[in-house]
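tool_log.txt
---
The assistant was asked to compare two proteins side by side. It first ran the structure predictor on the initial sequence, then on the second. Raw inputs and outputs are pasted verbatim so the downstream comparison step can read them without reformatting.
(1)
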Amino acid sequence: MNAKERKWVPFFLLTASLSLLIGFWGTVRLDKRPGIRAILEKSDGHLWISQLTPGGKAEKSGLKSRDLVLEVNKNPVQSNSDLNFHLDQKRIGESVNLILQRNGAKIDLTVPLERKNSLSFLLVNFLAGLFLWVMGVFVFLKKPNYQVARTF
C-alpha cells in the first residue's frame, strides 16, 4: 500500500465504524417499532384487513378479517403509510382507537400494539447488513486507491 492509498484508510475506518454503529442502532430501533399483527391491503381508496395473526392481540381485541380501517385515533387512514405514521408515534403495549367498518356498520375498537417485526426478520436484516458491511470493508482494504472500492 503506497502513501496515496494509506491516506484514505483512517477516514474509511472511521466512516465504516460509524456506519456499523448506525446499522446496529437501526436494528434495535426496528425491534421497538409498534404495529398491528395483520396483513393489510388497499383497494378502492380503503385499507382493509386481509389476514390476522392467529392469537395476536389484534384478534383478541375484536379485529376481524375484511374489516375496513377508517380512522386511527380520530385520524383518517387511506393507506398503509397513513397507518404506520400514526402507529410509529406510539410504543409497544400502548393502545390505539380504530374506527372500522364491518358489514356496513361502524365499529369503535381499542387495539393494543405489538412488536411489528418478528425476531427472524430482525436477524435476517442485521445479518444482511453485516454481510454487506464486511464485504465493503474487505473490498476497500484490498483496493483503497480505486474510486469504485471507496464508493462501495
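(2)
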Amino acid sequence: MSMALNKERPAPELYAQSEGSFRHMDFHSTFRAKTLNLLASVLQQSLSDAAAQLHEANAVVMTYGTSWVYKHKTSGKPVNNCQKLPANEFDRYLLDPSDVVASFESLYKLIKGSSPSTRFILTVSPVRHLKDSLDMNQLSKAGLIIACHRIVQKLKDVDYFPAYEIMIDDLRDYRFYEPDMIHPSSVAVDYIWEKFGQRYFNADTASIASKCQELSRALAHRPFDPTSNEHTAFLVRTLALAKDLQGKAAVADDVLALEKMLAGQGQLS
C-alpha cells in the first residue's frame, strides 16, 4: 500500500525469473509475464489502481498472516514473496511486535494524509503456517496479536476483529478445516464472515452483502445444459440481480459477462 500511495516503482533488484516467467518479490505470484517490460507495465497499473481505491476507501481491512519475514541477501531488502527461488538466497527472521506496530503506524499516517476519515480493521489470519512447525506458527501468531492490540490501544479509529480467535477457540474441531489441515473450511469461512457482518454491517450493508453472496453463488453455477430454457431464465434472473447491485458493489464486469452470455443465446438485442 505504501508503494502505491507514494507512487514508487517496484525495486528493480527484486525482479526475478522463475519457472519460465518474470516475477517480482514484492508481489503475488499471479503477477507474472513473459517479458520484464510487460511485467513492469502490469505492476505499475496495479499500483495505480490500488492507490485510486485507497483514496476512495472509508475503511481498510488488514489481515496479518505471519511474523516470519524473508530478507533477500543480495539486495538486503525484506520481500513479500520468495517466488520459489532457492532458500539460500534469503535470510529468515521473526519480527518483534514493536516492528509490526512501527510498520503499521507508518502506513496509517500515509493513508490518513490522503484520506483523513479512513477507519481501519485489523485481523490475524486463521490460516495455519504449518511449514513453520506448530510451535513456531503459534509464536508468530502471538506476536501479531500482541502488535494488533497495542495498535488498537494507541489509535482510536483502529479496531481488531478476532478472526483467528474465533477459529481457534470457537470452532474447536478439525472438521472446520479443509483436508490439508491448514485452511478453514467453507463452513468456518461462512461462520467467521457472519460474525464480521454482525459486528460491522448496518442493515443496508448487510442486505448488499447478502445479495453479493447470492450473485457469487449464481455465477459459480455450472448448468447441465447451457442451451436450455431453464438456464436462460436463470441467466435473466442473475442479470437482474447484478444490475440491482450496480452502484452498490463492483459488479460491472459481471453484468457485461451475463449480457454477453444472453446475447449469445439471442436473448439480448
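---
observation on (2): The two ends are 43 Å apart (CA to CA). Strands lie at 15-18, 21-24, 59-64, 68-72, 77-79, 90-94, 119-124, 158-160.
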